[in-house]
Write a structure and sequence with these properties.
Chain A is an alpha+beta fold and 212 residues long. In chain A, 36% of the residues lie in helices and 24% in strands. Chain A has 2 domains: 92 residues, 2-Layer Sandwich (Uridine Diphospho-n-acetylenolpyruvylglucosamine Reductase, domain 3), CATH 3.30.465.10; 106 residues, CO dehydrogenase flavoprotein, C-terminal domain (Enolase-like, domain 1), CATH 3.30.390.50. In chain A, strands 1-4-2-3 form a 4-stranded antiparallel sheet. In chain A, strands 5-6-7-8 form a 4-stranded antiparallel sheet. The radius of gyration of chain A is 16 Å and the shape is globular. A 7-stranded mixed sheet of chain B has the order 8-10-6-18-15-16-17, sandwiched between helices. Chain B is globular. Chain B starts with a strand and ends in an 11-residue tail after the last helix. The chains are: A alpha+beta (212), B alpha+beta (620). Chains A and B meet through helix 3 of A and strand 4 of B.
Chain lengths: 212, 620
């Protein structure tokens, strides 16, 4: 695993278990990978999940919240702005995760069982400097057909403090931004409501991390 | 099978194996039957093996990707007769029941202990989370791993944590009964010896495959199997045109079976997604699947009925419009059975100070046993049809199967090996008739099994129910009258529909055993996969409703819910009035059901099944 100073680079051919075993694996990603069955971590590679982001939605949401970038075969680097990266284009050869100071993270999910894939999940990563939010990335699974990053709601946080008021305002804005599709696990209305609730909880976890 | 060979090391031995696609199929094809098929999608974990020491789902790995690598299966763990500490601990701790997932559990635990000799309980649970167990509930599995870890670290593992047995206090201690004992067949299961239906391969065995309906309700206008029959390697293709139309009921219940006999082996009408359309027998599973794709079916798609209440409404599509099914209470309204039974004095309602009415619904639920339905049939040297099948009801299977294949029961031998979970889902004739017909058609041994998808669409499940409870209570917390109006959704076929709902009503109205109780029930056809037996057999759903209504009454009245229940629950020696009225035991002979006017339940059953019966009612 390459670990340059500014980012942690992961070979796309690596198994998920290899990532988990790497001491440099960010705790947020480690927590998500640890929730997958061991067998699955041994079978699946980073490249396989980049091609099929729906198979591990929480992993994809975590990458989006961490601001992951994809290194393609032709050495170009592109943000993992939307899942499905690699489909029909140059093959991904590596994944990059930026290393940033002052990062806090939080995850909130709702699932039928603790071991199940989430019906809806929110992953928040917030960068703070002197109490003010420098950057915020909020990704949701189950609120669109594929996991995706929230552009507008998270932007509201930047430039201000991370507190109960700013979190409430961000969570309230989320319902308008998401476009869930209902299925047997949850209706569109349920997913929309939970997207807001879980985003608030994920951001509150970021706040709590600072307090702890 | 692609004809290629791969070289790999299996359990320390260099092997050259025929590549059968997945590592799972390749290993099982080579006789490593300790590797189990459960889902084929990497969800259940039953197929776990160690590849270079790491656990993975062998169904998700191409055999070619394992070439040159070291595979460990459960067969490689024991040293001759000496079990691996994990195998021994699983027996000693009672960490297995059906044993189907046990090889995968043990292999995963081995990989864990190789990495971490002293794992915490949380670490064990996390590591083992990729292997599902539907029997043990995991506690004993965790204890087994903890015990093995301690022994492997050289510590004294203490006394084996065998399951505790709770016996009545008045029972004198006995040597065996009431004592915790290790499973007598534990060693067989922890070493992965061939114990299950699919753990044999017969010379000349063909592979059966089932074409199922994509529609919930349709009539087959035309079916053309000529292209499938012409495919090299195909030995038989059977459709409704090839099999005698013999009416039966697939529910595995004691003779005489409750009517209606509303099924045939293959029909020209399909009544749920996953219903049977055609079967194929071929040299390989791949050819059988190709043949299914070549069968042309022209469906006249009919309106589906997916809700039990809608099915009873005027103008609803009639699901069983055939003329040769007898014993349906009201076929035009899709009502298979109607029951209206009361016990006690209806005037008890007058004694009630308060009457509560509540409605509850439960959903359809699959047994999800890890071993799917699987069956192998062949002719033995004595001209008997041998049916080796994963069933809970071998004698019922033989009796039900006999008329379908036109053989007397003495020429059918049903072998029930150990099953990898059933939970009621195997209390039914499911695949045996299809497999047998393919053996009849080809003269060859035939193997059929359900995919995990087919388990959900073509096997059985728990009946969805709508329960309306009406409960009369006095201000002194006494339940004086109770009525349950039950709608049981039996899907496309009757199977266990009558008996499951009857058990539901009997249990629900006995637990608090009100002086007056009434059970009104409609068992209703819908165009959904037919439910069948499932742990609890109707009691589970009705108890959910019953205990909820009791809790809601207590809550509304401001009573302590435990005190309320304690005051009313049935006591030892009390007569179960509604059970008697429903016909439990001989008392039921005199019960007059409204399911068939002016005929008692037994005479009605006798009329429907050509049984002599008690003869107490007027002839039809």
């Amino acid at each position: 695993m390459e670990t340059p100073n500014k980012y942690w680079q992961i070979d796309a051919a690596s198994s998920l278990q290899a990532l988990l075993d790497d001491a440099a694996c960010p705790p947020l990603l480690g927590g998500v990978l640890g929730g997958l069955p061991w067998q699955t971590r041994n079978e699946k590679t980073v490249a396989a999940l980049l091609r099929a982001p729906r198979t591990a939605p929480l992993w994809t949401a975590a990458l989006l919240a961490l601001g992951a970038e994809v290194v393609l075969e032709d050495d170009t680097v592109t943000p993992l702005a939307s899942p499905g990266q690699g489909k029909g284009q140059s093959t991904p050869v590596a994944l990059r995760l930026p290393r940033r100071e002052g990062q806090r993270w939080g995850i909130a999910r709702v699932a039928r069982t603790p071991a199940d894939e989430p019906i809806v999940a929110a992953v928040a990563v917030v960068e703070l400097a002197e109490g003010m939010v420098q950057a915020a990335r909020l990704a949701l699974a189950g609120a669109w057909p594929e996991p995706a990053r929230l552009a507008q709601a998270a932007a509201q946080l930047v430039g201000g403090p991370l507190d109960a008021a700013s979190i409430a305002a961000t969570a309230a804005a989320i319902e308008a931004e998401v476009e869930p599709e209902g299925d047997w696990l949850g209706s569109a209305a349920y997913r929309r409501a939970m997207a807001s609730v879980l985003a608030r909880r994920a951001l509150e976890a970021c706040l709590k991390e600072g307090e702890g | 099978m692609n004809g290629k060979l791969i070289e790999l090391t299996v359990n320390g031995v260099q092997r050259t194996l025929e590549d059968r696609g997945s590592l799972l199929d390749t290993l099982r094809g080579a006789g490593y039957f300790g590797v189990k098929f459960g889902c084929g999608s990497g969800d259940c974990g039953a197929c776990t093996v160690l590849l270079d020491g790491q656990p993975l789902h062998s169904c998700q790995v191409h055999a070619a990707d394992a070439a040159g690598r070291a595979v460990t299966t459960i067969e490689g763990l024991a040293d001759g007769e000496r079990l691996h500490p994990l195998q021994q601990a699983f027996i000693e701790a009672g960490g297995l029941q059906c044993g189907y997932c046990t090889p995968a559990q043990i292999l995963t635990a081995k990989a864990l202990l190789d990495r971490n000799p002293d794992p915490s309980e949380a670490e064990i649970r996390q590591a083992m989370s990729g292997v599902l167990c539907r029997c043990t509930g995991y506690v004993k599995i965790v204890q087994a791993v903890q015990r093995a870890a301690a022994l492997m670290r050289g510590e004294n593992g203490g006394p084996p944590p065998l399951p505790q047995v709770i016996t009545p206090p008045e029972m004198a201690p006995l040597a065996v009964v009431g004592q915790p004992k290790p499973k007598v067949d534990g060693a067989k299961l922890v070493t992965g010896r061939p114990a299950y239906t699919d753990d044999i391969r017969l010379d000349g065995m063909l592979y059966g495959a089932l074409l199922t309906s994509p529609h919930a309700h349709a009539r087959i206008r035309r079916i053309n199997a000529s292209r499938a029959r012409a495919l090299p390697g195909v030995h038989a293709v059977l459709t409704w045109q090839d099999i005698p139309r013999v009416k039966y009921c697939s529910g595995g219940q004691s003779y005489p079976q409750p009517p209606p006999f509303d099924q045939v082996v293959l029909d020209n009408k399909v009544r749920h997604v996953g219903d049977r359309v055609a079967v194929v027998a071929a040299e390989t599973p791949e050819i059988a699947r190709q043949a299914l794709a070549l069968i042309e079916v022209d469906y006249e798609v009919l309106e589906p009925v997916l809700d039990a209440e809608a099915a009873m409404a005027d103008g609803a599509p009639v699901i069983h419009d055939e003329v040769d099914t007898h014993g349906i209470h009201d076929a035009a309204r899709n009502i298979v059975h109607h029951i209206d039974v009361a016990a006690g004095d209806a005037a008890m309602w007058e004694r009630a100070d308060y009457i509560f009415e509540r409605t509850y619904r439960t959903a359809q639920q699959q047994q999800a046993q890890i071993e799917p339905h699987v069956c192998i049939t062949w002719w033995d040297a004595d001209g008997r049809l041998v049916v080796r099948t994963s069933t809970q009801v071998p004698f019922h299977v033989r009796r039900i199967l006999a008329p379908l294949v036109g053989l007397p029961v003495r020429r059918i031998r049903v072998v029930k090996p150990r099953i990898g979970g059933g939970f009621g889902g195997k209390q039914e004739l499911v695949l045996e008739d299809l497999c047998a017909h393919l053996t009849l058609a080809t003269g060859r041994p035939v193997r059929m099994h359900y995919s995990r998808r087919q388990e959900f669409t073509s096997a059985r499940s728990r009946h969805p129910q709508i329960m309306r409870y009406k409960v009369g209570v006095t201000k002194d917390m006494e339940v004086v009258a109770m009525q349950l109006d039950l709608i049981g959704d039996t899907g496309a076929y009757g199977t266990h529909g009558l008996t499951v709902q009857m058990v539901g009503g009997q249990k629900a109205l006995s637990l608090y055993n009100a002086p007056y109780s009434r059970f009104v029930c409609d068992v209703v056809y819908t165009t959904k996969p037919p439910p069948g037996a499932f742990r609890g057999y109707g009691a589970v759903q009705c108890f959910f409703g019953l205990e909820t209504v009791m809790a809601e009454i207590a809550d509304e009245m401001g009573w302590d819910v435990v005190e309320f229940k304690r005051k009313n629950w049935v006591r030892q020696g009390e007569e179960l009035r509604i059970a008697k009225a429903l016909g439990e035991g001989r008392e039921g002979i005199s019960w007059r059901a409204t399911c068939a006017p002016a005929r008692c339940c037994w005479c009605w059953m006798a009329w429907s099944t050509s049984w002599k019966g008690p003869g107490c009612c007027p002839p039809c």
